[in-house]
Amino acid sequence: MATKAIKKSAGVPGPSHSGTGDKTPPARKAVIDRKTTETRIDLALTIEGQGRYKISTGIRFFDHMLELFTRHGAFDLELKCDGDLDVDQHHTVEDVGIALGEAFDRALGDKRGILRAGYFLMPMDETLAIAAVDLSGRAAFAVDTKVRTRLVGDLQTELVTDFFEGFARGARANVHVKTMYGRSNHHKIEGIFKAFARALRVACSRDKQLGEMLPSTKGLL
Q1: Is this prediction's pTM over 0.85?
Q2: CA distance linking residue 56 with residue 62, whole number of Å
Q3: Which residue in 20, 78, 84 sits closest to 51, CA to CA?
Q4: What are phi and psi of 4, to 5 degrees?
């Protein structure tokens, strides 16, 4: 009887080990609705995206930097900012940085199983830029664009620092970006944003070896 039972079940497929035992974790997402007297921001972020974007800040060069940030990070981002551009660009650029940082912080949750830190060296034609990110729970930033002109496109270049400071505050992260050398001011800023996107992509990545472990000895990030 036992032999017959074995033969009868031999052609019946067993349980799949590629399905239930190896489920893809849900995509990490966040929605931010940030309203102040200076800016009104609606933002939707998916970390496990396909580089899709729909972005409008009223500053076209800034939009372009956020678009390539999204594409190089392989994130999905919808962002609409209505800011007091009649006053200055500062509030728009800084608040977008804060809201984007808050979105990453919210989407990452308790940060278990992520690499936490990442860096990238980005060539942009004659320019070389570097970025390093640590999602440490502490806000700190260092920015050196080596841009000496007041404007690139329609963006006030000094506000690049304000964006990364805002992101570091919103994400509670260490953010370091620097242009190593270069000629084109456009390339200097673009190289930094691309390097930052790829460094952040690494920092957000899940690590199978870490599993659900928190990447910190403090027990909190």
Answers
A1: yes
A2: 9
A3: 78
A4: -60, -40
